[in-house]
């Protein structure tokens, strides 16, 4: 498939006229071709106008048609697999197996939301029938979730497919019935283009208005910021840095009409190692930890950046396990030169810290590769320096040694909101783990026993979210079927004639949809 | 019941040491006794500390116990009915029947949430069972809604019971398992005290920690603002002015950790009169409109402040109906001197507007009473002056005459987000009403046919909310069973041992709760 290096504005492909940029292959150490040109404000205007024009038709489209749209995108992506693998591995430095796996995940995410649409429970339909003889009479009341309107989605650097152009934010927004304007991440424009064309083509194949989807390229940040400020945009999905997320939140709050921003930002995802678990299988946990930490060169939002344990012999075995795993690893290139530079700098700063030392480290690799490292400090040092709890994006984690449980609890209490919190236990640890689990429950979106946060299952029973600053809105998730809720709002219809109700709220539709009627939950046969 | 005029700090009653204030009886034109003293920052600190300490126990309390708490509050309020009527009528100028009705509503709201707790669907439980043989294996995944933590609630001036100390925000937050710190509205301290004591007593009767509920009095705004800024507070419920709501949003966003603010602010709730309906029953609609507009002296958030109609004979009959209804009305005292003064000033400003005239007006009444008024202008004037679309709190509405449907649509499109939008139709209007209904759907929380927004049903199928600035968060409602969702967030438990799961997520509990398991919705027998 030949790359066109054009912005996708609804059904059209348009050459940008802004700043030019290219991706960089960190694995080969070379600039890629073709050159992409940033969208100008004129293209942004066209994308937003198209989304706005398409919003009503798309909101009123059949769920079955939107399910077909998602299935068609999934199929189109599947057909492009080889091209996607070529470009995505080169643009991200990630290995082929990971890209194939991530593409499969992206496709299954789209299909999950197709299933959500068929099921219909996400509509949360409620009907309270009219009571004309009551004093005062009760009118017919119906509530249904409706789409918010056009959504801006920002592609993430670290998941060129699953959290990017055709990723979870786009899939859930399209499922909700919201047109999407994506601002591609400049680190992987070719992968973005391919995914964007898969969507653009699917929109056409399903006979939907082109404005349902647009894709803008940009080297910088101005067009992305203007997108969030545009009054036609009604919600924002973002996965990226804390600085970027906070900036978008600020823009969204400063609008004449503020809009929700679902920003997934920074997290260090504490892992607590309980003494019984360490005594039983310290080295194994160390091996498993190293595998989780170095997955995707450590460039996961759920990467275990903090390990907390009580002093003792078990910890030594854990460190040995980590070191052993590191020794057998191939150095992996990082996503971009910028991310690699920030990683190296952060790692040096940590290692140079007076109270921190290196407990285990992988051998040095070629340029732009990550060097998996486990640093070590004690609770007192950790609690005395906020900087030690900041995210260091990449394969670097800090092991904090605690003298007793109280100190361990203080370390956990000192943390900001997190995506995940994990605890490794043996049966003998269960009593002591209760208090740890409670702290993690209050500060994270997902509490994990005997596992790590990396590898977020795409499912009904998943939350990929968490209290600020892990995300901007801890009441939501960006992975799993519940993610659709971010782009909906409930509307009440009081005494509205059948023919003017949304199709799913009409009497004829209710028998086929789960709904609550006069206080009772009813499921279709 | 003797008034104590004290702040309720958990189980204790404490004399404030801040600014003194009294309520004013607008019906009798006199200051009331006793004097209340504002809480100081020391009492605020105690209230927040108590709420924080109680949060964990309350979050883990049985749903049945919280249901009992709500039922006990309801019963305690019922036992105080006569005392509440004496004080609330005097503090608000509202008639006895309205106060008795509002108390019944408040009690039924508490009982609604007791039913929500018994039902358990609000937990939105999701279970995806472990798949140990899959590659990679899937761990046991469970999601449940958990309480956000302590909630700050601000009493509204216009509903001294249903949107105040023991109102919908408090009922839904307590149901969710969140401790509540209420900042009473200074216009009705005695009513607030009684409701607060009903809750304080119920908390004790149910053996819950006192910190589950506190009530702070304040003449000014500093303590309320500090309450929203307090890091232990996790969400805010507010009903009041746009200025007040925006200020709280700003404080909440500026915190180290921003929190959600559910502020219900201003709305003018457009009412569209279609030609067929006016021809068929113009005078009747006028009478019904006047009744809705003057309900509670027009001091409803859902008050119909804007009427939009096509020019024609039917409108004349509508105005005649309004005038006829006005002529038969008793002037009603307004809530406070301040509200009355702002109403008079706003009414004068509107009446003095070059393009506006008075179409119908009730006779002048005694001091502090409202003077129901229907003003009239044309679409061109309305569209040319933003000030004409601002809320004027009280019984005053603006009728906007349009020359054609396109102009009528322009008027509707020009409006900000609203709580409700109503359209009055005859069968002959249905085609033309479709476009109107669509505009209202996009800009309001509740679309009403042949009715008015006043009288918000407490039900499953109700939304009392709407796009900004009607509320700060159009994805939620402050009335009805869905209101509980504002104070919850979903948490995922991955591979967590049964004994460490929240009770409702354990296998033993699932059979008695609606939940989604492996993609299938299951209801208890």
From TrEMBL, chains A, B:
UniProt entry keywords in alphabetical sequence: Oxidoreductase
Top EC group: oxidoreductase
CDD domains for this protein: ALDH_KGSADH (cd07129)
Does Oxidoreductase show up as a keyword for this record? yes
Protein EC: 1.2.1.26
Task: Drop me one GO molecular function for this one.
Answer: 2,5-dioxovalerate dehydrogenase (NADP+) activity
Aldehyde dehydrogenase domain location is 32-458
Give the InterPro entries listed for this entry: Ald_DH/histidinol_DH (IPR016161), Ald_DH_C (IPR016163), Ald_DH_N (IPR016162), Aldehyde_DH_dom (IPR015590), Aldehyde_DH_Superfamily (IPR050740), ALDH_KGSADH (IPR044151)
Q: Which PANTHER family match?
A: ALDEHYDE DEHYDROGENASE-RELATED, SUCCINATE-SEMIALDEHYDE DEHYDROGENASE, MITOCHONDRIAL
Protein name (database record)? Alpha-ketoglutaric semialdehyde dehydrogenase
